[in-house]
Amino acid sequence: MDAKKLTETQYFIRLDRGENVNQTLKKFCRENEIKCARIHGLGALEECELGYYDYHADIYKTKVLEDEFELLSMEGNVSMMDSEPFVHLHVSLSDNEFRSLGGHLFEAKVAVTVECWMEVFPYEFTRSKGEKEKFRPLSF
To answer: Where are the domains of the chain?
Structure first.
């Protein structure tokens, strides 16, 4: 990973082949004391664990996709959960047949590179248990 601080509130971050997306971004936030941010990016991923939250059943349906995918779009945010930065990402992917799929990104490895922007805000949003066991809404 390499990062460049562009302004007082904006970073450009490049993740490199083999790095875990969520873990690397979480570590970056911890090291830079980032508690609230917006993230967006693109690149290529593999070994993607995607999820879909079923509110009524209060479960995440997950699926691991082993192949390489173009990362068409990655959108998310950073908040705090259990006194740690929590990186919440959703992705749109494209396979080698140009089919799209997406969902909540639990984790993925960088297949080639990921280029992302992070805009930091001077707030602390937190996630805590909501009305369901797995649901962690934002509080601000």
So the answer is: 11-122
